[in-house]
Design goal:
By secondary structure, this protein is an alpha+beta fold. The chain is flat. β2 and β3 form a beta hairpin. The strands form 4 sheets. Strands 1-2-3-4-6-5 form a 6-stranded antiparallel β-sheet, with helices on one face. It has 20 helices and 17 strands.
Length: 673
Amino acid sequence: MSEDPAKNPPRIPPPKAPASEGRASSTPGGPPSRPPGPPPRPAVRRQAPGVRGSQQAPEAATLKTGDVVGGRFAVERYLGSSGGGVSYLCVDRQTRQSVVVKVLDMPFPGEEAFAALSEDIRLAGSMDHRNLAAALGMGRTQSGEIFIAMEFVEGSTLSQLVAQRREEGRTLSIRDTFTVLAHVCSALAAVHQRKSCHGVLTPYNVYVNKQGVVRVGNLAFGRMVSTHLHGRGEGPFRDSIYVAPEVAQSPANLGPAADLYSLGMIAAELLNPTGLPSDRKQAHEMALDGLAKYPPALFSLISTCLASDPSQRPTSVQAFREELEEVARDAGAKLSGPPPAGALPIEPAVVEEEVQGESLFDLFDVGDIAPPPDEDGETERYLVQKSGLDYGPFTEGQILEQLYADEIHEHSLVLDRVTQERRPLIELDVFTAKVQAYIPEREERRRREAEARAELQRKVKQGGLAALVVGIVAGLVVLAAMGWFWLQQPDPEPMPLDKAFASLDYTFLPPPSEFQAVAVDADLLQSIFNPRASEEEIARTLKKVRGASGSRKGSAKAGGASGGTREADVDMANFSGSAKHLSDQEINRVIMADFSAMSDCIRGELGRDASFKGLTVQFFIRPSGTTGGVQIKESKYQSRPVGQCMIQRFRSMKFPEHGAISNRGVEFPLYVQ
C-alpha cells in the first residue's frame, strides 16, 4: 500500500493519480517529507522568463514586414524578443515555407569566430531527424547583425502544455512523461552521435506540433546565445534550473552528460503537481521531494540524472530511455496505441502493443491473426526502424523496394507484427535469400560507381594539366609579344615636373591627414536624431533644413541681380569652373537628404546601447563628387553595426562636382540627445 498523505504530509500537495496507471505496492523511497507550506513560484510558465511575446512591444527590433534577410527570407511579422535577440516569422522564398529568423543581440565577433559559429549551425542543419527542428543557416543582415534561420514549428511548447494542465487542476501521468522524454531522447541520441550536445534543453524549446510530433528546437542557437550571455553574467547558463551545475560554472563543461541532467530536471518538472521553483538550489531539493510518492525505481533513475558529478549520471540517453520505459511499464502505464482520455495528444513512443498474459499463438494459427492482404494479395505486416522510430506497416515487396533503393540495409531492424519478432532484415527467413542475392549486386554497383568517379577525377586532372600547359605556352607568347612591342618603342622624353603633376587626375590624391568639421546646426541635428521625437517633429525639422537651403539659393540670385553677393552665395552659385569649392551648406544638404537611412542606423544602435550618444564621420570628397576614405572618428564604433551602417551610407553619397584641391577632409558630427 502507498503512504497516507494525511499521516505523513509531503512538502507540496500530492498529484491526482493518473488514469489507468497502477501504483507500486512498495512504499516509495526518497528524501523525507517536509512541513507543509505555501509553494514557491513555479519556474515553468507559458512564456520563458525575460521573453517578450508577439503582442508585446519589441525591443530593438530592426526588421519590418517586407524586409528580405539574407536575400531569401521575407519578413511577415514580429514574433517576440529576449535577451538573446529578436525573432521574426518569415517566408523562405525558395521553398515557400514558414521559417523563424532570429536576429542576435551580440556584436560581430570577427570573421574567424563567425566562421566557427557558422560551422556549428551547419552541423546542426545536417542532422535530419523527425524529432529535431531543423537549423537552416546563419548570416548577417544589411545592417551587419548576425541572424540564424530555423524551422518554424506550428504548435505549442512543452511549457505551455504543462502550464495549461496545471491551470485545469490536472497533472501529467507517467505515460505522458515517458512519451515526451522518449521522443526527446531519440533526438538527443542523434545529436550525441555527431559528437555534439544541446546544452540548453528546457521545456521552452521542446515543441509539440499539431500532428502530435515532439520536436526539439534551438539546437546550436541556444548554446551560442547562452554562451554569449554567460559572459555578461546572465542567460540560461546562469539562472535556468534545467542547466547542469557544471555548465553554470563554465560553458566549457558542455557535453552529453549536461543534457542528461536537463532530462532529469524536465522529468521532475513534469511529474511535480505544482511545479519547481526558479531558484536552482530549491528546485533541486523539490525535484527529489516531489518524486518521493512515485515508485522507488523512478526516484532512483531521475535522482541519478541530477547527480552533481557528471560521471555518476546514466551512460547515455538511450540507456535512460530504456530504463524509463521499464519503470513506466512496471507502474502499469500503457505506452503504445492511441492516447487514453485526458492524455497529451502526442504520438506514442512505443509502436508495438505488448500482449499481456497467455500468448495468442497458443490459441490461433498465424494465418488467423495476420493483417488483411492488400490489392496485390500482400499483407502489411512489417515495421522498419529508422532513427529509433518504427515506420510502416509495409508489405514484403515494399520492404524490398526500400532495400533496392538503399533506403534501408541488411542490418536494419524489422518488426514482424504477426510474430512480434524484431530482427535485422537479413535474419528474417522470408527476406534472407533475396537480401543475400542483392548484396553482391549492390557491391558491384557501388564498385562501378566508385570506378566511374575515379575515372572522372582522372579526366578532370588530365584536363586541368593540359589547360595549365596551354596557359603557360600562351602566357610565354604574350610576354614575348609584349617584349618585342616594348623594344620597338622610342626612348621616352623627360617631362617637366609641373607638367607631370598637371596631367594627373585629382582622384589619385591620397586620403587627407587632417579633417575640418562641417558647420552643422547642433539644435537641428539633436531634434532630428532624438529617439523620442515624433514623425511630425522630424518632418518639420527636415522642412526647415531644406527651406533654409532653398532661401539661400534665392538670396544668391537676388544678390546677383543687384550687383552685391556674399562669398558663400558665390560658392553655391558657381557650379562650373575648375576653382569650384563645396560650401558647408551644399555638404549639409546632400547628407541630410539621406536622413531616413541614417536615422535607422542611429536608432538601431540606441536599441542595442541606451548610453549611445552619437559619433563623427570623417571622409573626403573627390572632384567627381564621390566620397573616399570614409571612417568613424571614434574607433570603438568603427566595426560595430552603427559604424558599418554609417560608412555604407556615406560611401553611397554623391556630391556636386568640383575642381578644388585640398589636403583636408570633411568631419561630420552626428549626436543624439
